[in-house]
Specification:
By secondary structure, the chain is an all-alpha fold. The protein has one domain. 80% of the residues lie in helices and 0% in strands. The radius of gyration is 16 Å and the shape is elongated.
């Protein structure tokens, strides 16, 4: 396990999985506020996002905890990046539409 390439690829895959998961969460919240059936949207999104992430972690790890750890670190960093990128949009997007 001295080759750094698989670890870097696992980290990059974690960044991608995190971007998909947390970006999808942000999109779901934005669309869920104006959706006629928000519960269905939130449930479907959660199942889809978790399925993609768990499958991605499984494939990236390939039975090696080091790769899984690198992927998890990338996932957590992606959370920080998505949170930072969407921070300025919170105030205008999180209010319910006025009647």
């Amino acid at each position: 396990m001295n080759d750094p390439l698989p670890m870097m690829l696992s980290f990059a895959a974690g960044l991608l999985l995190g971007a998909v998961f947390f970006g999808g969460l942000w999109w779901t919240i934005r669309k869920g506020l104006s959706s006629p059936r928000p519960a269905l949207l939130f449930l479907g999104s959660a199942v889809l996002r978790m399925g993609v992430v768990v499958s991605g972690f499984y494939l990236v790890a390939n039975g090696q905890w080091q790769r899984l750890l690198a992927c998890l670190v990338g996932f957590i960093i992606a959370r920080l990046i998505v949170t930072w990128l969407t921070r300025g949009k919170r105030k205008e997007d999180c209010h319910a539409p006025e009647s």
